[in-house]
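>> received
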Amino acid sequence: VQLQASGGGLVLAGGSLRLSCAASRRTFSNNGLGWFRQAPGKEREFVAAISWKGDSTIYSDSVKGRFTISRDNVKNTVHLQMNSLNPEDTAVYYCAAGRRAYGTTAPSEYTYWGQGTLVTVSS
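>> returned
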């Protein structure tokens, strides 16, 4: 099973990026999906999660109102639209597939992880 994240890059503060994560070898249409990030010298933190149907989402307080998570169960993908980026958003972003049908904030609830994509926000 593979989760392939893409879409990271260098962006100026105030800019936007859209991350994508594609799953291969199996479908995750019945699983909650999430995004986490890890900044240099810090622990991995929850960013956003979405339920299997896409009708329920949760966000960390630090990204609420700026980031939007979405999914396409036909294409077996999950996306993270990131707007109004600031330097504190700089991190490696990871997508993950959870054990349950709904999204959760705890990394321990996620079974499969992508390799990460680097987002750098310059001031």
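>> The mean pLDDT is 95.
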